[in-house]
Amino acid sequence: MLTDARKKFLDLLWPILISVLMIAGWELIVRALGVRSIILPSPSRIVETLIERHDLLLANLWPSLYLTVIGFALSVGGGILVAVLITYSSFLRRGFYPIIIVSQVVPKISIAPLFIVWFGTGAVSCLLLAFLITFFPMTINSALGFQSIDEDIHLMARTFMASPWQVFWKIRMPNALPHIFGGMKISITLAIIGVIVSEFVASQQGIGYLIKLAGGMLDTPLMMASITILSIAGLLLYGLIALVEQRAVYWQKSSDISGSAGG
Asked: Label partner for 236 (CA 20 to 30 A): which of 73, 141, 157, 229?
């Protein structure tokens, strides 16, 4: 137990140490070369901006986070539902897969202006773009988990007269959970990207809008502060999903869980 706790501590300490060294190097280089804040603000200047403009930053962070979470939740629900349908129906699988792939191949930035025409500038356009970006990894990962069950276990369950509902909840769902959480980890980061991109084009609030506004005023410290607070929020959301994963997929080792995210 002590060894495991020490390993977890070292795993957490190492990236923190690397980050601190990189930030310190950034600070030293900016100060030594006398780089102006309009080109590249120092970390200390970014922290000052975070403190001085916290009201503005937090006011614009909430709309972005709200749309991110809603778009992410819709993609999780919709992705799992479609994954179940294409798992149990080859007819639907042949019909849905090309549409799902096309939705991923089309550049999302090119769709944002269309959403403005169809739904106007506001939350709906941002939400739909976030959903469209996150839907693909959720569907593909979930379908992979549902379809990759051990056929011997499936056959044994049918031999013992297990109903399709029991097979789904007792075999397919536990087998798919690591894949589902892997898709969720990917989707939460993509949801943030989708919301920010849509805010660049079709919103009057949010971190994306604030970054665009700060860029127009050549306020680089505010731009960097906006990116920083958004990154922190994204890390917290990702960490929350990872924490839930550890509780839900308790029968797998942490290394196995981490590996599923890249699948």
From this structure: 141
Give me the pLDDT at residue 91, please: 80
Shortest CA distance to 67 belongs to which of 219, 180, 209? 209
How far is 187 from 255, CA to CA, in rounded Å?
20
At residue 67, what are phi and psi to the nearest 5 degrees? -70, -35
Burial class (CB in 10 A: 0-12, 13-18, 19+), 136: buried
- Sorted by where each begins, the domain ranges of the chain are 1-34, 49-261
CATH of domain 49-261: 1.10.3720.10
Pick from 205, 177, 188, 186: nearest CA to 262: 186
Could you report the per-residue pLDDT of 176-199, keeping only the tens digit for each? 889 999 999 999 998 998 888 888
pLDDT over 90 (residue 51): yes
pLDDT at 255 over 50: no
**pTM for the structure as a whole:** 0.81
Phi and psi at residue 207, in whole multiples of 5°? -65, -40
User: In Å, how far from its chain's centre is CA 125?
Assistant: 18
